[in-house]
Amino acid sequence: MTTKIIDFKLLGDDRGSLIALEENHNVPFDVKRVYYIFGTKEGVRRGYHAHKNLKQLAICTSGSCQFLLDDGKIQTHVQLNSPTQGLLIEGLIWREMYDFTPDCVLMVLADNYYNEDDYIRDYDEFLKTVNP
Ligand code: TYD
Fold it and tell me: Which residues of the chain fall below pLDDT 70?
């Protein structure tokens, strides 16, 4: 279980900027799903889950938000505030997202389709799973 910031190569010219995402190149997995969270209301905190078996790469294409990442022992807080950076989350990591700016568009690439069976939505169950 790991989390890591990936810096994307910034392409562009005097017209502006461009980032290209390619599976198994700068996105380190097969991409089966992309979703994005936007229009998040002030004060909302979401996530509150871990995945049993999913790789995800989260990118704030606009605005910023904070992640709480918890491996069952250590909690870290990471701010995503640039479209040039992605947060890779692999394995059993409890995550919560908060402090969304009104303009935040949080795009997430995932290596599998949506499957509710892959979620752990109960924090005590998460702790028992990572610290058996
Ligand atoms: P939810 O898991 O509550 O979002 P978050 O963890 O970011 O707070 O998802 C909200 C709803 O959207 C829930 O009914 C499940 C559904 N959903 C999909 O159908 N497909 C998806 O890829 C995702 C991420 C969620």
Answer: 1
Tell me which residue range forms the domain holding 97: 3-130
Rounded Cα distance between 71 and 78, Å, is: 14
- Residues 34-66: tens digit of each pLDDT: 999 999 999 999 999 999 999 999 999 999 999
Residue whose CA lies nearest to ligand 1 atom number 6: 47
User: 115: Cβ below 6 Å to ligand 1?
Assistant: no
Could you tell me if the CB of 34 is within 6 A of ligand 1?
Answer: no
Please answer whether residues 87 and 109 qualify as being in contact, where contact means their C-beta atoms are separated by less than 8 angstroms: no
Please tell me the total count of domains within the chain: 1
Active site residue 49: yes
Q: Is 14 exposed, middle or buried (0-12, 13-18, 19+ CB in 10 A)?
A: exposed
At 27, which CATH number?
2.60.120.10
pTM over 0.85: yes
